[in-house]
Amino acid sequence: MTIEERIQAAGGGRAGAYLELTKPGITGFVALTAVASYLVAALPDIAYFDLFHLVLGTSLSTAGSLALNQYLERAPDGIMIRTRGRPVPSGRIPEAHARFFGWALLFTGVAHIWFWLGWLPALVTAAAALLYDAVYTPLKLRSPLATPVGAVPGALPALIGWTAHTGSIDARGVTLFGILFLWQLIHVLALGWNLRADYERAGFQLIPPGSAGLVAGLMVGYAALLALVSVLPTVLGMAGNAYLGAAILLGAGMVAVAVAFLRNPTRRNCNRVFVGSLLYHPLLLGTMVAGAL
To answer: What's the alpha-carbon Rg for the chain, to the nearest Å?
Structure first.
Protein backbone atom coordinates (compact mmCIF):
# COMPACT_ATOMS: atom_id res chain seq x y z
CA MET A 1 0.00 0.00 0.00
CA THR A 2 1.40 3.40 -0.98
CA ILE A 3 1.57 6.44 1.31
CA GLU A 4 -1.32 8.02 -0.56
CA GLU A 5 -3.42 4.88 -0.18
CA ARG A 6 -2.70 4.73 3.54
CA ILE A 7 -3.77 8.35 3.93
CA GLN A 8 -7.02 7.66 2.11
CA ALA A 9 -7.58 4.53 4.19
CA ALA A 10 -7.21 6.56 7.37
CA GLY A 11 -10.37 8.45 6.37
CA GLY A 12 -12.18 10.75 8.75
CA GLY A 13 -11.61 13.93 6.75
CA ARG A 14 -10.31 17.02 8.51
CA ALA A 15 -11.69 16.01 11.91
CA GLY A 16 -10.00 12.64 11.64
CA ALA A 17 -6.70 14.32 10.75
CA TYR A 18 -6.86 16.51 13.86
CA LEU A 19 -7.68 13.49 15.99
CA GLU A 20 -4.71 11.67 14.48
CA LEU A 21 -2.54 14.66 15.36
CA THR A 22 -3.24 14.01 19.05
CA LYS A 23 -2.14 10.34 18.87
CA PRO A 24 -5.23 9.16 20.80
CA GLY A 25 -3.70 5.79 21.68
CA ILE A 26 -0.74 7.38 23.46
CA THR A 27 -2.97 10.07 24.97
CA GLY A 28 -5.21 7.41 26.47
CA PHE A 29 -2.20 5.47 27.72
CA VAL A 30 -0.87 8.55 29.52
CA ALA A 31 -4.27 9.33 31.04
CA LEU A 32 -4.60 5.76 32.33
CA THR A 33 -1.14 6.00 33.89
CA ALA A 34 -2.13 9.17 35.74
CA VAL A 35 -5.39 7.52 36.85
CA ALA A 36 -3.58 4.45 38.16
CA SER A 37 -1.19 6.63 40.15
CA TYR A 38 -4.11 8.65 41.54
CA LEU A 39 -5.91 5.48 42.61
CA VAL A 40 -2.84 4.07 44.35
CA ALA A 41 -2.56 7.33 46.29
CA ALA A 42 -6.27 7.73 47.02
CA LEU A 43 -7.77 4.28 47.61
CA PRO A 44 -10.13 3.71 49.26
CA ASP A 45 -10.94 7.44 49.38
CA ILE A 46 -11.67 8.23 45.72
CA ALA A 47 -12.98 11.65 44.76
CA TYR A 48 -14.65 10.82 41.44
CA PHE A 49 -15.08 14.49 40.57
CA ASP A 50 -11.32 14.98 40.87
CA LEU A 51 -10.70 11.80 38.91
CA PHE A 52 -12.85 13.11 36.05
CA HIS A 53 -10.92 16.39 35.92
CA LEU A 54 -7.62 14.49 36.07
CA VAL A 55 -8.58 12.43 33.03
CA LEU A 56 -9.86 15.44 31.11
CA GLY A 57 -6.96 17.75 31.93
CA THR A 58 -4.30 15.11 31.35
CA SER A 59 -5.86 14.06 28.06
CA LEU A 60 -6.07 17.64 26.78
CA SER A 61 -2.52 18.55 27.76
CA THR A 62 -1.06 15.30 26.44
CA ALA A 63 -2.94 15.65 23.16
CA GLY A 64 -1.61 19.20 22.81
CA SER A 65 1.95 18.18 23.56
CA LEU A 66 1.79 15.34 21.04
CA ALA A 67 0.30 17.64 18.40
CA LEU A 68 3.13 20.13 18.94
CA ASN A 69 5.61 17.28 18.67
CA GLN A 70 4.22 16.36 15.25
CA TYR A 71 4.41 19.99 14.18
CA LEU A 72 8.03 20.26 15.36
CA GLU A 73 9.03 16.98 13.71
CA ARG A 74 7.24 17.59 10.42
CA ALA A 75 10.48 17.60 8.39
CA PRO A 76 11.95 14.29 9.64
CA ASP A 77 8.46 12.76 9.71
CA GLY A 78 8.22 13.50 6.00
CA ILE A 79 11.41 11.49 5.42
CA MET A 80 10.59 8.37 7.43
CA ILE A 81 8.49 5.70 5.75
CA ARG A 82 6.56 5.05 8.97
CA THR A 83 5.48 8.67 9.44
CA ARG A 84 5.14 10.20 5.96
CA GLY A 85 1.38 9.90 6.12
CA ARG A 86 0.99 11.89 9.33
CA PRO A 87 -1.31 14.93 9.09
CA VAL A 88 1.34 17.67 8.80
CA PRO A 89 3.94 16.16 6.42
CA SER A 90 1.13 14.73 4.25
CA GLY A 91 -0.39 18.22 3.94
CA ARG A 92 -3.75 17.29 5.46
CA ILE A 93 -3.28 19.92 8.17
CA PRO A 94 -1.42 23.20 7.54
CA GLU A 95 1.64 23.73 9.74
CA ALA A 96 0.28 26.88 11.40
CA HIS A 97 -3.01 25.17 12.20
CA ALA A 98 -1.22 22.23 13.83
CA ARG A 99 0.88 24.62 15.93
CA PHE A 100 -2.15 26.61 17.12
CA PHE A 101 -4.17 23.45 17.78
CA GLY A 102 -1.37 21.97 19.89
CA TRP A 103 -0.85 25.12 21.95
CA ALA A 104 -4.58 25.53 22.50
CA LEU A 105 -5.01 21.99 23.79
CA LEU A 106 -1.91 22.16 25.96
CA PHE A 107 -2.83 25.49 27.55
CA THR A 108 -6.43 24.37 28.14
CA GLY A 109 -5.31 21.11 29.75
CA VAL A 110 -2.78 22.70 32.10
CA ALA A 111 -5.22 25.47 33.06
CA HIS A 112 -7.95 22.90 33.70
CA ILE A 113 -5.74 20.88 36.03
CA TRP A 114 -4.60 24.03 37.85
CA PHE A 115 -8.16 25.25 38.39
CA TRP A 116 -9.67 21.94 39.52
CA LEU A 117 -6.76 20.03 41.07
CA GLY A 118 -4.15 22.57 42.14
CA TRP A 119 -0.93 24.21 41.09
CA LEU A 120 1.41 21.26 41.72
CA PRO A 121 -0.14 18.71 39.33
CA ALA A 122 -0.50 21.53 36.80
CA LEU A 123 3.19 22.38 37.21
CA VAL A 124 4.17 18.73 36.71
CA THR A 125 1.95 18.60 33.61
CA ALA A 126 3.53 21.72 32.16
CA ALA A 127 7.03 20.43 32.96
CA ALA A 128 6.30 17.17 31.15
CA ALA A 129 5.19 19.05 28.03
CA LEU A 130 8.18 21.41 28.18
CA LEU A 131 10.68 18.57 28.51
CA TYR A 132 9.00 16.57 25.77
CA ASP A 133 8.64 19.29 23.16
CA ALA A 134 11.44 21.74 23.97
CA VAL A 135 14.19 19.35 25.13
CA TYR A 136 13.56 15.76 24.04
CA THR A 137 12.24 16.54 20.56
CA PRO A 138 15.24 18.60 19.33
CA LEU A 139 17.71 16.38 21.21
CA LYS A 140 16.56 13.35 19.19
CA LEU A 141 18.43 14.82 16.23
CA ARG A 142 21.62 15.42 18.22
CA SER A 143 22.34 12.72 20.78
CA PRO A 144 21.27 9.29 22.08
CA LEU A 145 20.91 11.04 25.44
CA ALA A 146 17.47 11.94 24.09
CA THR A 147 16.22 8.53 25.24
CA PRO A 148 16.92 8.98 29.00
CA VAL A 149 15.89 12.62 28.76
CA GLY A 150 12.63 11.63 27.06
CA ALA A 151 11.98 9.00 29.73
CA VAL A 152 11.49 11.82 32.25
CA PRO A 153 8.34 13.33 30.67
CA GLY A 154 7.28 9.78 29.86
CA ALA A 155 7.26 8.96 33.57
CA LEU A 156 5.87 12.25 34.89
CA PRO A 157 2.20 11.21 34.43
CA ALA A 158 2.73 9.10 37.55
CA LEU A 159 3.44 12.29 39.50
CA ILE A 160 0.54 14.12 37.87
CA GLY A 161 -1.86 11.54 39.26
CA TRP A 162 -0.06 11.28 42.59
CA THR A 163 0.01 15.02 43.26
CA ALA A 164 -3.60 15.42 42.11
CA HIS A 165 -4.60 13.56 45.26
CA THR A 166 -1.79 14.22 47.74
CA GLY A 167 -0.79 17.75 46.76
CA SER A 168 2.85 16.79 47.39
CA ILE A 169 5.73 14.69 46.09
CA ASP A 170 7.04 12.04 48.48
CA ALA A 171 9.01 8.81 48.36
CA ARG A 172 6.00 6.81 47.20
CA GLY A 173 5.31 9.13 44.27
CA VAL A 174 9.00 9.16 43.33
CA THR A 175 8.97 5.35 43.39
CA LEU A 176 6.14 5.28 40.86
CA PHE A 177 8.07 7.77 38.75
CA GLY A 178 11.21 5.59 38.96
CA ILE A 179 9.36 2.47 37.86
CA LEU A 180 7.92 4.22 34.81
CA PHE A 181 11.24 5.91 34.02
CA LEU A 182 13.08 2.58 33.82
CA TRP A 183 10.21 0.97 31.93
CA GLN A 184 10.28 3.79 29.39
CA LEU A 185 14.00 3.28 28.74
CA ILE A 186 13.50 -0.39 27.87
CA HIS A 187 10.44 0.35 25.76
CA VAL A 188 12.09 3.08 23.68
CA LEU A 189 15.36 1.20 23.20
CA ALA A 190 13.45 -1.79 21.82
CA LEU A 191 11.44 0.45 19.51
CA GLY A 192 14.53 2.38 18.45
CA TRP A 193 16.52 -0.73 17.59
CA ASN A 194 13.72 -2.25 15.54
CA LEU A 195 13.17 0.99 13.61
CA ARG A 196 16.81 2.05 13.50
CA ALA A 197 17.02 2.17 9.70
CA ASP A 198 14.03 4.52 9.44
CA TYR A 199 15.27 6.65 12.33
CA GLU A 200 18.75 6.89 10.80
CA ARG A 201 17.19 8.03 7.52
CA ALA A 202 15.61 10.97 9.33
CA GLY A 203 18.64 11.68 11.52
CA PHE A 204 17.10 10.55 14.83
CA GLN A 205 19.56 9.23 17.42
CA LEU A 206 17.46 7.28 19.90
CA ILE A 207 19.90 4.42 20.40
CA PRO A 208 23.66 4.58 20.94
CA PRO A 209 25.78 3.89 17.85
CA GLY A 210 27.61 0.61 17.53
CA SER A 211 26.68 -3.01 17.92
CA ALA A 212 23.39 -4.42 19.11
CA GLY A 213 25.27 -5.74 22.14
CA LEU A 214 25.44 -2.27 23.66
CA VAL A 215 21.70 -1.69 23.25
CA ALA A 216 20.93 -5.16 24.59
CA GLY A 217 23.28 -4.65 27.53
CA LEU A 218 21.51 -1.44 28.44
CA MET A 219 18.15 -3.23 28.23
CA VAL A 220 19.36 -5.94 30.61
CA GLY A 221 20.71 -3.39 33.07
CA TYR A 222 17.54 -1.32 33.02
CA ALA A 223 15.38 -4.45 33.36
CA ALA A 224 17.38 -5.60 36.39
CA LEU A 225 17.01 -2.17 38.01
CA LEU A 226 13.31 -2.17 37.18
CA ALA A 227 12.87 -5.56 38.86
CA LEU A 228 14.48 -4.17 42.03
CA VAL A 229 12.64 -0.84 42.10
CA SER A 230 9.29 -2.46 41.39
CA VAL A 231 9.28 -4.22 44.79
CA LEU A 232 9.49 -0.90 46.65
CA PRO A 233 5.72 -0.21 46.62
CA THR A 234 5.30 -3.20 48.96
CA VAL A 235 8.16 -1.99 51.16
CA LEU A 236 6.58 1.46 51.34
CA GLY A 237 3.14 0.07 52.17
CA MET A 238 1.55 1.03 48.86
CA ALA A 239 0.58 -2.55 47.93
CA GLY A 240 0.57 -5.98 49.53
CA ASN A 241 2.13 -9.37 48.93
CA ALA A 242 -0.04 -10.17 45.91
CA TYR A 243 1.46 -7.16 44.15
CA LEU A 244 4.94 -8.18 45.30
CA GLY A 245 4.54 -11.60 43.72
CA ALA A 246 3.31 -10.06 40.46
CA ALA A 247 6.15 -7.53 40.45
CA ILE A 248 8.74 -10.28 40.91
CA LEU A 249 7.25 -12.39 38.12
CA LEU A 250 6.87 -9.46 35.73
CA GLY A 251 10.36 -8.18 36.54
CA ALA A 252 11.85 -11.61 35.95
CA GLY A 253 10.01 -11.79 32.64
CA MET A 254 11.43 -8.47 31.47
CA VAL A 255 14.95 -9.54 32.47
CA ALA A 256 14.49 -12.85 30.65
CA VAL A 257 13.44 -11.32 27.31
CA ALA A 258 16.19 -8.70 27.56
CA VAL A 259 18.82 -11.41 28.22
CA ALA A 260 17.46 -13.41 25.27
CA PHE A 261 17.97 -10.39 23.04
CA LEU A 262 21.49 -9.92 24.43
CA ARG A 263 22.37 -13.53 23.60
CA ASN A 264 20.80 -13.41 20.14
CA PRO A 265 20.13 -9.84 18.93
CA THR A 266 17.53 -10.53 16.28
CA ARG A 267 14.49 -8.50 15.34
CA ARG A 268 12.27 -11.28 16.66
CA ASN A 269 13.89 -11.19 20.09
CA CYS A 270 13.77 -7.40 20.15
CA ASN A 271 10.07 -7.57 19.33
CA ARG A 272 9.65 -9.78 22.37
CA VAL A 273 11.22 -7.09 24.54
CA PHE A 274 8.95 -4.47 23.00
CA VAL A 275 5.78 -6.54 23.39
CA GLY A 276 6.87 -7.52 26.88
CA SER A 277 7.18 -3.86 27.80
CA LEU A 278 3.68 -3.18 26.47
CA LEU A 279 2.29 -5.96 28.66
CA TYR A 280 4.40 -5.09 31.70
CA HIS A 281 3.08 -1.55 32.15
CA PRO A 282 -0.68 -2.22 32.50
CA LEU A 283 -0.19 -5.50 34.36
CA LEU A 284 2.10 -3.99 36.99
CA LEU A 285 -0.04 -0.87 37.53
CA GLY A 286 -3.20 -2.94 37.51
CA THR A 287 -1.94 -5.27 40.24
CA MET A 288 -0.68 -2.27 42.19
CA VAL A 289 -4.11 -0.64 42.09
CA ALA A 290 -5.75 -3.94 43.02
CA GLY A 291 -3.31 -4.29 45.92
CA ALA A 292 -4.26 -0.86 47.21
CA LEU A 293 -7.95 -1.76 47.46
So the answer is: 19
Measured between alpha carbons, how far is 130 from 151 in angstroms, rounded to an integer? 13
Q: Is the dihedral of CA 71, 72, 75, 77 positive or negative?
A: negative
Q: What are the average pLDDT values for consecutive 10-residue runs of the chain, which has 293 residues? A: 43 86 97 97 93 98 98 95 94 97 98 98 98 97 95 98 97 97 97 92 88 92 98 94 96 98 95 97 95 79
What is the Cα 138 distance to its own chain's centre?
17
DSSP annotation of 196 reads H
For residue 88, how many other CB atoms are within 10 A of its CB?
A: 24
Alpha-carbon distance of 70 to 111, in angstroms, equals 22
Cβ atoms of 177 and 183 closer than 8 Å: no
Rounded to 10 degrees, the C-alpha dihedral 242/244/249/254 comes to 140
The pTM of this model reads 0.93
